[in-house]
Amino acid sequence: MNTIIRKSVLGVAGLAFAGGVFGGPLAAHADAPVKDAKPVAVVQSADKPDRGKLVPHGVQGAQSKIDLNAEQTANVKAIIAATKKAGLPERAAVISIATALQESKLENLGHLGDKNDHDSLGLFQQRPSSGWGTPEQITDPEYATLAFEKGLKQVDGWQDMPLTEAAQTVQVSAYPDAYAQWEQQAADLVAQHWNS
């Protein structure tokens, strides 16, 4: 037999043997196919968002958490409602809430006098002098969220970025890594309130 033909035949026989060894025991005991069988779909619960979509990269670094009062919880719900109004997914709400946790602890802050960072206001500490809107607009949770998320949508690939990178690209903070510490609480809040 020609050497090339013999190697080909042995190679095919080897593949057949390997297929039988690796697939054999399971295949040998498998039931006969069911006529007209249909694949079974895996259904995600409508009650809770998919955790993998909320925190696709896992949380980054040590996490912080605060207890929320009624006002802060109302602001979480306002951020989620605005995110839905903008037609954005749950991940945008996680980034938005984590950003607001860092910037204001989810309190809709007015002018803080000498403690204020220039003219920063609202949940996201947006500045009228930087073009975010009027003081009345940026202290409205819906407007402030839509303004933040408008900036987020302009960041190429924000959906695939770590949270702190996406938030920092919009906010341009002096503390760019600080947003990451709120990712777990933000994801928990979105999971809890997205469908409420």
Q: Which architecture would the CATH scheme give at its second level?
A: Orthogonal Bundle
Q: Given the structure, what is the number of helices?
A: 8
CATH class: Mainly Alpha
| CATH topology heading | Lysozyme
Strand content: under 5%
- Give the terminus-to-terminus CA distance: 74 Å
Q: What multimeric state do the chains show?
A: single chain
Unreliable stretches covering 5 or more consecutive residues: 1-46
How confident overall, as mean pLDDT?
Answer: 78
Structural class: mainly alpha
Per DSSP E runs of 2 or more residues, the count of β-strands stands at 0
Task: Please characterize this protein's 3D structure.
By secondary structure, the chain is an all-alpha fold. The chain is built from eight helices and no strands. α3 packs across α6 (141-153), α4 packs across α7 and α4 crosses α8 (183-193). The longest helix has 27 residues, at 3-29.
Summary keywords:
196 residues, mainly alpha, Lysozyme, globular, disordered N terminus, signal, TAT_signal, Secreted protein
Concise account of the structure shown:
This is Secreted protein. With 196 residues, this protein is mainly alpha-helical.
List the SSEs and their pairings.
Blueprint: H1 3-29, H2 51-54, H3 70-85, H4 90-104, H5 135-138, H6 141-153, H7 163-171, H8 183-193
Helix pairs in contact: 3-4, 3-6, 4-7, 4-8
